[in-house]
Design a protein that fits this description.
By secondary structure, this protein is mainly beta. About 5% of the residues lie in helices and about 45% in strands. It has two helices and 17 strands. The strands form six sheets. The chain has a six-stranded antiparallel beta sheet, with no helix packed on it. A three-stranded antiparallel beta sheet has the order 11-10-13, with no helix packed on it. It has a two-stranded antiparallel ribbon with strand order 1-2. The radius of gyration is 17 Å and the shape is globular. It binds 6-O-phosphono-alpha-D-mannopyranose and zinc ion (ZN).
Length: about 190
Amino acid sequence: MDIVLPSLYFNGNKLSGEAIDRLSRRLGDLGDIFNDREAYDAMPADQVIYEVESAFPVADGTEGGLFLGVTYVHPGKVGDEYFMTKGHFHKIRNRAEIYICMEGEGMLILMNEDHTHTWAEKMSPGSVHYINGHTAHRTANTGNSILSFGAVWPSDAGHDYETISENGFSKILVDMNGMPTLVNRTRP
Ligand code: M6P
Ligand code: ZN
């Protein structure tokens, strides 16, 4: 057949089609990312912080392929710190990624490879974010509704979560008098 239908669609802001992988990250899975341990311990471990829908058209690790994901970060805070994703470097450090914000308000938090500089880009519906290789990335929901964004990254990039769970990002994003503000991390 010469003309075929795509196997994936955006149905509203949700990904639909064949072979979509879905995962939920709950507060209990994210113990090492939030700065305020007391506030974290006082919250329900089964609370969903974000969900990810992904399509993997080729095998993980394939050079030259692309993966697609949609992430939905729920609104809320642990203490003053906004709900956010785990964040990662790519295992192959030079691999880049693109994020496209679909709904909600947030920040893309970025950190250089030697952890000396952390900065953020504002996310709003339609904003496009090119994430250079060698740059750690995570997103935080700074609004009152779901923050969702699409992501496209190379299928051989891999996720290095260990570096982030050991050292974090050098700055955290907190609500300071209603304004999202980057401040130095206080937890060792
Ligand atoms: C985006 C992409 C995925 C990533 C997801 C959640 O969809 O960057 O690769 O898995 O966000 O982020 P994290 O893996 O850091 O929890
Ligand atoms: Zn990535």
